[in-house]
Amino acid sequence: MHQVLHSSAQDRLYVYSSSIELEDLVLIKSTTDRHIDSAQYYANEEQVGKAFVESKIPRSDVFLTTKILSAGKDFDSTYTSITDSIKKMSGGSDGYVDLFLIHSPNAGPEAVKSMWQPLEKAHKEGKIKTIGVSNFGKRQIEHMKEYAAVWPPHVNQIEVCSSRVPSLM
User: Fold this and answer.
1) Is 42 a catalytic residue?
2) Which residues form the domain of 156?
3) Please, what sign has the CA dihedral across residues 62, 87, 49, 149?
4) Catalytic residue among 14, 16, 42, 79
5) CA 93 to CA 96: how far, in whole Å?
6) Could you give phi then psi for residue 60, rounded to 5 degrees?
7) What is the pTM of this model?
8) Rg of the chain (C-alpha set)
């Protein structure tokens, strides 16, 4: 299931997707603001990367977002999970993503720490331009202050249900 939100008046396109096809990227080529929101949980990063490479859209013209849902067994395995996502999304080992988020605070404070620190490393290395969280509350963000070198998070992406805000659709 995926949703392509397109506003021709503003020439903007945002893709929230559990799958993405080359046809979707053809639509992306016809817009000026391009944002693809992916996640490890959606299991679509490889699809996004392949379709993106095939589209021949310049990398600088697309804003790529992905998310990590759970920490690995240690720092290195979590970092590898993050860099694997970046490779899949950007079509190779020398790529980057614009925004990488922790998908949810539900795993608990220790898991958040175990994900945040490898994200900081990848950010410092230039593999990620911006790091953040998704659907975190104020206390959850405040707790990160204890260990985060990058604080506050650059972004807190909040889910808004369109059925509750009909003017968005």
Assistant:
1) yes
2) 2-168
3) negative
4) 42
5) 8
6) -65, -10
7) 0.81
8) 16
Planar angle of CA 83, 19, 120, nearest 5 degrees:
25
Domain total of the chain: 1
Q: pLDDT of 3-51, one tens digit each?
A: 443 344 344 444 444 455 555 555 555 556 678 889 999 998 988 888 8
Spatial separation of the C-alpha atoms in residues 110 and 117, rounded to whole Å:
11
| Placement of tokens 């080359």 in the chain | 22
Nearest-5° Cα angle at 5, 43 to 137: 65
Distance (Å, rounded) from C-alpha 36 to C-alpha 132? Answer: 16
For residue 75, what is the domain's CATH number? 3.20.20.100
Joined tokens for residue 18:
């559990």
CA dist 133 → 23, 91, 121, 153 (Å):
30, 24, 16, 7
Non-local CB neighbours of 85 within 8 Å, separated by 6+ positions:
40, 45, 66, 68, 97, 100
